[in-house]
């Protein structure tokens, strides 16, 4: 009964000082909400960038045709070189730190025609194991296989955007036929939409086996009959990406007659290195956003401490009167403890709810390339509310204890 009486007294006191209670709660809610929103935004950028990279595939590395110096050390005497099918075979055989490698033949000047529409997309020839290197989830049908390659079957797999262009109105693509520059191919699979936006080239592709692509659609105007557009490969493990890249460079440089140490001679893209660089940028951004949130939280804590100190100091006469009527030091301290805890927890919950509402509104704005909607960090919420709770409770208990230690007569004399 004593506890509930103290609780009723606390609520009456808070209601009697509505403006002061509101300012205290606003400071706490603002500090908690700001911190959670900043942390959530930082994590949204990080996860969005990771998702964009993963839409290519896990630990993907690219090697493109480049320009090598005809005279050692003189790039102005450069000569262009093309990657070849032999480069692919040598890398597959001689690079122990490369898990898988695939040659890619790519043409953008091939006309695609179906019974329902026509378009000009991208046609690529790849080996059957290409889907173990790149991220190509199937929506329906199957991927090309070894039998398709060795038996030179006229089959293909199409991307999501290509299906919309060639089979509008939700028509079934799998089992239908398309003409590529007049040559008939059967669609055996459809790739799910990968990434976001209409400019994602993977969605607007037709995939053939490398054998059929090389036979019917080799790279136009190439002196080397086995030239490829580029190579995709993956390191054996993620941490060995730099070693794998060096092995690939050595093989390509040897096959094309230049020094592999010449950085300017290579055109490649290491998504693992890129992800690590971006990760460091986001680590710095997290520190910055966390610092801003911490400053906001600190300012909120200072405001709480200031308001609580003033509030308790103004109630010294009240404490003296309660002691004169028989209240114990324990009951007085319990009331101020409950006031600090109630204000902090209630305000923290309001701040967390406000941050959650804003995050929900952001998630409804649609997906943005490189950014995921922010999500609630319950660990950060616990730390923020706990920090402000300690500050608010201590700021209330310290002057309350000093006032409670006074004799009732002395407390009643306080102005």
Explained architecture:
- The protein is an alpha+beta fold.
- The protein folds into 2 domains: 2-54 and 277-413, no CATH class; 61-270, no CATH class.
- The chain has helices at residues 2-16, 18-54, 85-94, 146-150, 160-166, 210-216, 241-256, 271-314, 316-324, 329-363, 378-405, 408-413, and strands at 61-64, 66-71, 74-81, 98-107, 112-113, 118-119, 122-126, 138-141, 155-158, 177-180, 183-191, 205-209, 230-235, 267-270.
- The strands form 2 sheets. Strands 1, 4, 5, 6, 7, 8, 9, 10, 11, 12, 13 and 14 form a 12-stranded mixed β-sheet that branches.
- Strand 5 (112-113) and strand 6 (118-119) form a beta hairpin.
- It is elongated and about 105 Å long.
- The mean pLDDT is 79.
Q: What keywords describe this structure?
A:
2 domains, 12 helices, single chain, alpha+beta, two-stranded antiparallel ribbon, 415 residues, twelve-stranded mixed β-sheet
Produce the secondary structure layout.
Blueprint: H1 2-16, H2 18-54, E1 61-64, E2 66-71, E3 74-81, H3 85-94, E4 98-107, E5 112-113, E6 118-119, E7 122-126, E8 138-141, H4 146-150, E9 155-158, H5 160-166, E10 177-180, E11 183-191, E12 205-209, H6 210-216, E13 230-235, H7 241-256, E14 267-270, H8 271-314, H9 316-324, H10 329-363, H11 378-405, H12 408-413
Parallel strand pairs: 7-12, 9-11
Antiparallel strand pairs: 1-13, 1-14, 2-3, 4-7, 4-13, 5-6, 5-10, 8-11, 9-12, 10-11
Distance between the termini: 32 Å
Estimate nothing, just give the exact number of structural domains. 2
Q: What share of residues is helical? A: 40-55%
- Taking pLDDT < 50 over at least 5 consecutive residues as the criterion, the unreliable ranges are none
The major sheet is characterized as: 12 strands, mixed
Structural class: alpha+beta
Strand content: 15-25%
> Would you count the extended β strands for me?
14
Rg (C-alpha, Å): 34 Å
- The sequence of SSEs as H and E is HHEEEHEEEEEHEHEEEHEHEHHHHH
- Total DSSP helices: 12
Q: How would you state the average pLDDT, rounded?
A: 79
Tell the overall outline: elongated
